[in-house]
UniProtKB/TrEMBL annotation:
Listed name of the protein: Polysaccharide deacetylase
Molecular function via GO: hydrolase activity, acting on carbon-nitrogen (but not peptide) bonds
Domain of life, per lineage: Bacteria
SUPFAM superfamilies from the UniProt entry: Glycoside hydrolase/deacetylase
Species of origin: Ramlibacter lithotrophicus
InterPro entries: Glyco_hydro/deAcase_b/a-brl (IPR011330), NODB_dom (IPR002509), PgdA-like (IPR037950)
Residue ranges occupied by any NodB homology domain in the UniProt entry: 26-262
GO biological process, one term: carbohydrate metabolic process
Amino acid sequence: MPRHIVCLTFDFDAQSGFISRGLTTPTPLSRGEFGIVGAARILDLLKAHGIRSTWFVPGFTIETYPAVCEALVKAGHEIGHHSWTHTAPALQTREQEEEDMVRANEAIRRLTGSKARGYRSPAWDLSANTIDLLLAQGFEYDSSLMGADYRPYRARRGDVVELGKPLGFGEETSLVEMPISWTMDDHPHFEFMRLPNSVMPGLQSPRTVLEGWRDEFLYMKQSVDWGVLTYTMHPYVIGRGYRMLHFEQLVDRLVHEGAVFMTMEEAARESLPHIVKRTNDAAAF
């Protein structure tokens, strides 16, 4: 029987993403603080539909807003690892990345009673060490890579990349990769950000964006018998009123279309019989 899974995931950064970029004046910090307002709205929507979701929460957020994070756990949502400082691993030494990973996992353990099973990298930019560190820390899945859309796969380590040569595929690991995409992320579509050397325009219509998100699910339904589609959202982004209106409509449509809502941990475990080896081009055919 066809089965089409949806993972609603929320990167609960609060102010951490602004702080890690050096944006520490009152206005950008207040943008992150709005995530507390957005989180309450999202929790109400999920409760109304009986949907459990996954929240990737930096240690910063857990220790800054403990009562809100406790509400997430009480509501039955999965708490995933999203670093402590929201610094991209590619910008850290191995020692810095490991220290940050351990510190954040301890914050999650204090909050939930156990360490996280899933990881999502800040800025979706893994370092050459991240996979090794995740395996050493006992993670079951990662959700930071974009090598597929509806079919989880095994994360690799040790790819050999040299300009002018074909890619040398590395070793497939036991870590399940739950693929994501910038197109299925609210932040680049909606957030206006003026940075020192660039401007991220954002501010698109949620009607247009979320129609595209709906169509992505419809294509999954028509193209595969079993699949997982992951949506990535940020409470301070999707939590704005007119975006919530369209998000609610999207959830209603997904329910109508027969979507099976799961936490990422649940979906990663269900995916195991569906994973195929993909270290060469024959895996796609």
